[in-house]
Amino acid sequence: MKLFFKKIGGVLIVFLVLTFLLSIGSLWSLRKSSFYKPSFLVNAVETSKFDYIILGASTGLTTLDTKQIDSILELTGINLSMDDTGIPSQYLMLKHFLAEGKTTRYCIIAPGVSSYNAQNEKLSDNDYRFLMFTNRDYVHDYYKGFEDTEAKILSYSKHAPFIGVSFYNAELFYPSLLTLLQPDKRNRFDNKGNYTYPVFQRNNDSIRFEKELKLAFRSPYLAKIKTLCDQNNIQLICYISPMEGTKVNITNSNYKSIDHSQIIKNKKYFYDKDHVNSLGRIQASKAFAQILKEVMTLETYVNKNGD
Amino acid sequence: MLFNSLDFAIFLPLVFILYWFVTSRSLKLQNILIVVASYIFYGWWDYRFLALIVISTLVDYSIGKQLEKTEDKRHRKLLLWGSLFTNLGLLGFFKYYNFFVDNFVEAFTFFGSEIQPNTLNIILPVGISFYTFQTLSYTIDVYRKKIQPTQSLIQFAAFVAFFPQLVAGPIERAKNLLPQFIKQRKFNSVQAISGFYLIVWGLFKKVVIADNCAFFVNQIFDNPTGYSSAELFLGAILFGFQIYGDFSGYSDIAIGVARLFGFNLMTNFSFPYFTRDIAEFWRRWHISLSTWFRDYLYIPLGGSRGSKMNQIRNVFIVFLVSGFWHGANWTFIIWGVIHALMFLPLLLFKVNRTYIDSSKLVLNEIPKLLLTFILVSLAWIYFRADTLTIANDYVMNIFKLSDGSLSLFFKTSKSILFTAIIGFSILIMLIFELISVQNERKEVILNTYSSLFIMLLIVFMGVFKNPSDFIYFQF
Fold first, then answer.
1. Looking at CA atoms only, how far is residue B146 from chain A in angstroms?
2. B 402-421 residues with CB below 8 A of A?
3. Are A15 and B417 an interchain contact pair (Cβ–Cβ within 8 Å)?
4. Does B456 contact A170 at a Cβ distance shorter than 8 Å?
5. Is the backbone peptide bond immediately before A88 cis, with ω within 30 degrees of 0?
6. CB proximity A8 to B under 8 Å
7. CA-nearest residue of chain A to B188?
8. B433-467 pLDDT, tens per residue?
9. Per the CB < 8 Å rule, is A7 touching B448?
10. Is residue B286 flagged as an active site residue?
């Protein structure tokens, strides 16, 4: 029995030490890189005062082009959206943004539209992208706030990083090897955080908006974002991105919103039902810039002259 | 409970500690612990099906005791039929009822009579094909007076439900496993260490090779018409590695876990992809099932004795039954037929035992090895496809040689990563296996350093997020 425990115990200890070191190294490499948005914000974004930021899912990522909006309005913005995320992830991203000592006048939330109403929020598929910052309390507390297995894995990774790194090995370990060689490599977004879908041959048909979606903004995390924005003197705007055939009926007036669900009326501007392509992005960003300009002008007027 | 789950990672050390530190002084207590642990292990899926194992255990235990008491041939035969009827009846009902009803209805429809199918929503109990065959082997061996029936119900229950091999084998013979429950077990460090290493090797094959291969295999088999001939061909090859990694990985873990408890289970796979003809392949693939069919079906039918026609008939029956054992679908039956057709020429020309003495390979045997591997891989298409039509189309599209594109494997960064992981891990497996083959070993033997290397590969190359179930659980 002694021989067994000595031998296997030895193997297991060396194994744990090696996996621990490799995992720490992997997270360190990702933390120092620009591969995922959280580390991109820390390492590649030098600006600390923004006029606006966009936090969203794939809709926010591919609809609002901050380069185009900045050039129209001569503002400084950044797109911090991540695909396959929900409003909780956007809350975490805002916390991360503020923790970096950065400020913004406007925070544009642009999640998938159903996320606005979701009351039982789950950990999003891509929340592991914050794992390299799990030593920060707000990240760890965020993971701890969910019940699902993935959240537990991410939460335990604060003390045993190999749990998260092995579970998400394709998403964390291999990119970390890549970032060792190319620290500036970004995971499918440009230097202002944008990404776009290509233009496929689609029919030049006009869209009929037959489906209606009621938006009551019930998400508890949206309320948390609002509180955080209020505390930091940030104007929160809920953006509803263009959709192919769905119109939105907003039933809650507690949140400022920009409803662009029906702004694009031709199928050729869409990549799929929920996402515009690069042509649609130009249209949507232009329309958004116009509205943002009006919002900012109005705010300046109110600040000067009162209500 | 899956071997590659967190539940099992907690369960195994717990049972190990209870077994060696709490119950080690009493053989009876150790056996009771095995029965309880095995029932918990099995009940983790669906506790309701435990009743089937209990029924099977009680029936065969009682029949074994009755067989001991009587010398009357007619009575003994009746008892044997009782066991066959109960075990195969349960298996037939749960596994084959709907298949027979559907085919019965189709046959009637073909001849112009419309009848309404009366199929049932039956869930297949995990491992039923495995433990049924194991208990049957006990009764048949007692009937043939090859073994003495056990006097202890606990020992017999432990033999039937022994958790390492309960749900996917190896299908043990009473002659080998039952005596191990009767004698006092002493902890053997060398045996336990080899068990631990075998668990590591089995996990590597399952979590790294099989589950990564599943990424492409599932895509291809879900929509075979959407891929080029080259992609389809590689899909079949990858499924060959997937099923091997999956099933032999499970067997290795089972054998390894059993060794931790002082048991020796039979070898179930002996490097089947390093074989030079189909006969050799079948001597090294799922050995516990092949030998079961040899001993309890092929030889009683006459085996390779008698006329050529009898030999052909016997081979066909064994391969058909073997195919049907895997599942209630024509695809499995055709898979069996294909193997029979590949095996028969070797038997008829009396070259089926060419490689029986040595597994060692020489360089000029590589073409034979590749040919056997490709034939086996093509036959796997029938095993994996959902229907015969899909399988036929799949094979046809390979041989159309329409397109040599392999874009599926290099389409996105994710697919490139999976391609690299699969290629590297298969290469590692083949190197380890080749070394074992050339040293005429029965299994891959790891040491401290190689086990560490393999464990690191498991952690950083394994699939943990969406792991696949063990394929053989469905059988």
1. 36
2. 414, 417-418
3. no
4. no
5. no
6. yes
7. A1
8. 999 999 989 999 999 999 999 999 999 999 998 77
9. yes
10. no
Q: Which segments of chain A does DSSP mark as H helices, in order?
A: 2-31, 37-43, 58-63, 66-73, 87-99, 137-144, 149-156, 161-167, 174-181, 220-231, 278-305
Which residue in chain A has the smallest CA separation from B196?
Answer: A8
**Residue A36 sits at the chain B interface (C-beta within 8 Å):** no
Domain boundaries, chain B: 6-184, 191-276+355-474
Cβ-based contacts of B454 with chain A (< 8 Å)? none
Q: Which residue in A196, A95, A195 sits closest to A145, CA to CA? A: A95
**Nearest chain A Cα distance for residue B89, angstroms:** 41
What are the pLDDT digits (tens) for B365-397? 899 999 999 999 999 999 999 999 999 999 999
The shortest C-alpha distance from A172 to chain B (Å) reads 10
Cα–Cα distance for residue pair B298/B296, rounded to 1 Å: 6
Contact (CB<8Å) B452/A14: yes
pTM confidence score: 0.90
Instruction: Measure the CA–CA gap between A284 and A281, rounded to whole angstroms.
Output: 5
pLDDT tens for A47-105 read: 999 999 999 999 999 999 999 999 999 999 999 999 999 999 999 999 999 999 999 99
Evaluate whether B170 touches B256 at the Cβ level (below 8 Å). no
In this complex, the residue of B20, B187, B451 whose CB is nearest that of residue A11 is B451
Q: Cβ contacts (< 8 Å) between B452 and chain A: which residues? A: 11, 14-15, 18
CA distance B446 to B462: 19
- End-to-end Cα distance, chain A: 82
Distances A163 to A154, A218, B329, B459, B465 between C-alpha atoms, Å = 8, 34, 40, 9, 11
Name the residue ranges covered by the structural domains of chain A.
Answer: 18-305
Contacts 24+ apart (CB under 8 A), A201-206: A202/A267, A202/A268, A202/A270, A203/A267, A203/A268, A204/A266, A204/A267, A204/A268, A205/A266, A205/A267, A205/A268, A206/A265, A206/A266, A206/A267
- Residue A295 to residue B389: CA distance in whole angstroms: 62
ipTM of the complex: 0.86
